[in-house]
Amino acid sequence: MTQRTNLALVDSDFRRRAAITHALAGTPIHVEPFEDLSELVARWPRDGLVLVHDDGQIVQDAIRTMTEIGQWLPLVAYGADPSTNQVVQAVLNGAIDYLEWPFGLNEVKQALMVAEQSSNSLGTVRLREAMARSRVQRLTKREREVLAGVADGLSNRLIGERLAISPRTVEIHRANMLNKMGANHTSEAIRIAIESSLVG
């Protein structure tokens, strides 16, 4: 690993942040320390890896934030003596790897390799999902219901029957939905709905 890699470190503990920053000083890994997620969001990096101290909630919050802002970076969690359940939960919430604290340069390099491999495949999927979700979040509850009906292949009349509204009202919601999502046609709206996991 010769090229410089950016590592955004999020940890509320000053001593751990300092220890990790010091351990990686003089390596091709540039550490940018942050006290919390809001500090990171204010100065969101263009590339690299997000390394977060697992407090049981931050992985989920970080993934949700990436989804909202439509920017995906691979995320690795770490914790001291983590339980199997803790590691599994972090991975289910979206972490691509988990390190046990204390760790050194070799463990970070390994995590970066995993991140690079996953960002080529998973990263693209995650970014598309994040962008799709941010588009779907612009919709009202009724517009989402219409989108779900469209994705099920229903006509305006059948969507109207399902939602107890007139076909003309469905048509209006459908036009608003396409406009808000920035979709040129119905099939694009359906693709966005699928990518956002609104429909399976």
UniProtKB/TrEMBL annotation:
PROSITE patterns: HTH_LUXR_1, HTH_LUXR_2, RESPONSE_REGULATORY. This is DNA-binding response regulator. Keywords: DNA-binding, Transcription, Transcription regulation. It holds the Pfam family GerE. Transmembrane segments: none annotated. InterPro entries: CheY-like_superfamily, Sig_transdc_resp-reg_C-effctor, Sig_transdc_resp-reg_receiver, Tscrpt_reg_LuxR_C, WH-like_DNA-bd_sf. Residues 6-116 form the Response regulatory domain. Residues 132-197 form the HTH luxR-type domain. It comes from Novosphingobium arvoryzae. One of its GO terms (biological process) is regulation of DNA-templated transcription. CDD domains: LuxR_C_like. One of its GO terms (molecular function) is DNA binding.
